[in-house]
Every structure is written in structure tokens, then in C-alpha cells.
User: Fold this.
Amino acid sequence: MNAKGPTFTRRMLLTTAAGAGAAAVFAPSVLRAQQLSGPIRIGGLMSLTGAGGTWGPIMAKIQQQIVDQVNEAGGILGQKVEYYVEDDQTNPDAGVLAIRKLIDVNKVCAVTGVWSSAVAMPTLPICWQNKVTMLGIAASDTLAEMPHEGYFIRTYVPVSLQGREIGRFGMKRGAKKFFVMLAQNPFSLAMLKGLKDEVEPQGAKVSHVIYDGTKTSFRSEVDQALKEKPDFIMLGGYPQDSASIMKELYRNNYTGTVCGFGTAITEEFLQAAGKGVTEAVFTVFPSVAENSDAYKNLQKLVGTGGLLDTNRCQAYDQINLALLAVAASKQATGEAIQKTIRSTIGGPEGEPVGDVMTGLKLLAEGKKINYEGASSNCEFLPNGNLPNAYFKTMQVKEGKLVTV
Assistant:
């Protein structure tokens, strides 16, 4: 995918030790010329219930559809793909139990999904200690800083960069006093720091509150915000709590700018808050690769010609990356997967692909491939982060989110 801004390629990242190790893993040949010793086991650590319950079932369904396509075509290297899904309940304790089952019972070599940072924090060490690759969405900056030995790959934009981008947006609108309303979770402070690092050096004032997102009333938090007389309020929670906060702001006739984090301002938020309440609300969020072949392939898969959210796109990319890494390395191991994703499934000399079936065909022909995803160009740094971030701004107009 040709993206705006600086571009980092896997060829550039190959200078790392992880990349160098991966180069030795890859050797083009007909895929069926070398057989794996058993089925390819991939685990989906999904938030089927809890705060992430909106997305977990959708993401799991997309990944199962891709697995079904591969198995119907004969599998990879003579083996079927087995896909196991466990519900982390968007809860750290449940997440630990789920990851232990996926690793100890199901014997998976890679785990996908991992939507919640609260779940990712205790489960990532379990993954890298067992040499299982985690392909996650969880946005907490702390995850990339943990000693994961390369077994962490994040398909989402780090949350501090998102905070900075919202700060830039506010400054462009002339904001002087920011009030940040954040649900209590592992990425709240990183989001706040990113925004403050962007706006405070320019003279803006930032106040904040971190609240319990499971509450049903946020009157006291809104009163606290309004006492500061902000001209810019940022909503950094989830759809339901953000809708409740927005209703309180509406009742208090707040006239400043309201801008929400991507996890807050969604169709669910619009429905929960109501048409009049949400009018003119902004959202700034990481954009997906709308012009890529992968994005178009995913539209066909889910049966829509409309816009796709980042969670669907990341779920699609995660499973494609994991399966293509197995095919390219000819090894169904976490080590081979994480190294191959960072190196040999891409580079300027590889043929661009946006779906697993095309990639498998090219690999079988002995060709190199460059997987360009639906959510991003899928290039990853040694710490697991995407090196490039692209954002989109939308506003609610007549009850609908439109690009501005």
C-alpha cells in the first residue's frame, strides 16, 4: 500500500537481530514439497463478552472464515488449520485462564485478537515465555516496552500517538483549555501523556478525570469538567459510558468542542446517546487502508460495500499474517511466525498481496510476497509497534458520522 508520510519496510527492519534470524527461516519452494508434522493451531483470545463484547464475536467470525477458506483449499503444507476461540470476558483474570487453555491444552503457536490492554498485560508474558506469538489490538504503550522478545505484534496504533493526534486537532481548532475524560484502563495515562506532550508546550492547559467505566451515571465527572470551563472536551472511554457523558454535557448546554477517541465514538455511541445529543461531535482515530486490495477483499468477505471499522480490518490482517508466516517459514512455531512477519512476508521485492489465498499461491510458486493489509501496510518494528500512523477525522452531522 502506498501510504502518506515516512515509510518503513521490512527490508529496513531486517537489520535487527530478529529480522536477521527470520531471513534464514525463509526458503522459497513449492509449499507441498515439505510437510508439517501436525495441524496448524491458532488461538483467538477474543472479548466475546464484557466491554469488548461488541467486537469479539465479529472478529472471531472473520478469522474463522479465513481459516475455512484455507482448509477448503487443502490447508497449508499438507496440514489443516485448527482455530480455537476463548472468551477473555474483557477481564484480566478470565484472560489468563483463557490463554492458559489455548497454550496448554490447545497447543497454539499464535494468538490473535487480544482487544483489551487490561487482558494483554498479564497474558503477554505467558505468551513469550511459551514462545507463542501474540498478534494483538491492545493499545497500551506499556506492552511494547515489556521484555517480550519479539513475540508481541500490535496491529493497532500505540495510544500515545493517538493522544498526540487529538491534541493537534484541538490546537488547530484554537483550543486553550482541554479537559480529558478517560475510562480507567491500562492505556488512559499513556493517552493523556501523549495529548499533554503535544499541547502543553504550546501553552494550552490540560485537566482530566479518570472514571469507572462500569458506572451508569457520570454527573459528578461532568460537573468536575465544566468547573474548569474547557473549550475542548475529549471522550476517552467506550461507547456506552461516552454516550452517558454526552447526555450530561447536552443537558448542561455545553457549547465547546467535543472530540472522542476511536473506541468511544461509534455507531453504538450514536444510537445510545441519540441524534440531537451527538450532533457536531468529532472523532479522530487511526485510519484503515481503504484503498488496499486487502480492504476490498474484506468487504467482499463480510458482504458490504460500506466503511469497515479498524477492529474488523485488524482481525482480518492478524489471521492472514499468521497463516502466511507459517507457509513462508514452513514452520508452525511462534518463533518462526514472529520473525517471518517482521521480515520475509514483505519488502519491495515481494509481490503485493491482500489475502491469504493469493499469498499461498505465490509462495507455492516460489515467489516472495509483500502482505499489505486492510488496517495498515503491516510493517512492524522490533518492539511490535507499527512505525507509521495515519489518522482520520469524522464529525456527526444529522446523526451520521461523516469524514471532514
About this structure: The chain has two domains: 10-158+290-371, 168-285+393-403. Residues 1-34 have pLDDT under 50 and may be disordered.
